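Next comes a single protein record:
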Amino acid sequence: MSAGWNTIESDAGVFTYLLDNLGAKDVQFEELFSLDANFLRQRRPVYGVIFLFKYPVGEKPQDKPLDGVFDYDVAESRFFAAQTIQNACGTQALLSVLLNKDDAIDIGPKLQDFKDFTRAFPADLRGEALSNSELIRDVHNSFARASPFADEAQRLATEEDDVYHFVAYTEMGGKLYELDGLQPAPISHGSCSSEEFPDKVIPVLQRRIERYPAQEIRFNLIAMVRDLRIRAREIGDQGWLQQEEQKRTAWQWENALRRHNFVGFIGETLKAVVRSKLHEGDTKYEEWVDEATKTTSARLTERRKAKVQGGANEEEA
């Protein structure tokens, strides 16, 4: 936990219902499993994408970005907030898209009030206002995984730590922008219309991924799009509509599970199993443990044999 902000997952269901609980209407997230512009085009209108990646902790600040150029003017004229607190970057990336698309999306009265309140603020004060918004923080935290353990110790991340960060990409004013609260200003990646966004954003993401070693695969990409159920109703595709409704039901179930701490349940289940074994006789519990130990040992032995055999086969090939 970081000053009241908990970590949330990069998950389409989490971000969709986070939008919904903040008051936005007729908008959702879709997960992208590949850098496929055609997949994005099929889900137009696409308002933006949110990219999760391993943050290079040891990387030193640069006077200019590794790709694109800083646009300090748009930092004042559009919604851009500096990240001033840990663990809030997912929701901040979401708002970086949403609050710059209020001409196309009904963001709801509460977020509209927040945007109007911070309109004249510089980026650092916008970040402070976001971090101190009870509405945004409470909705954000409602999607954090429940944990029975609280680590109140705060320390700076080192190069050995796995630290992940969210950034947003969206079209604004005829340009493609990267919105990262850890940067001093939005990063422009050149001209781009809303129709061109799917084709223009994919090469930018590819160049970013290419900065990492080839074996690095810990990335996640989700797109903010119009509620797909609306499109399904418009074209009369009942099968698609049913599929989207089922997806929403699954997301709600998964989000409900995230809010529950199952450690107590697991502990009570284990105690009940042990109690039942003890009731069967004085030696039944020990016999049960010995049998489980032998079974586990046998499985581990089989796995080692399979691994050795697989390595030998590769050498022969």
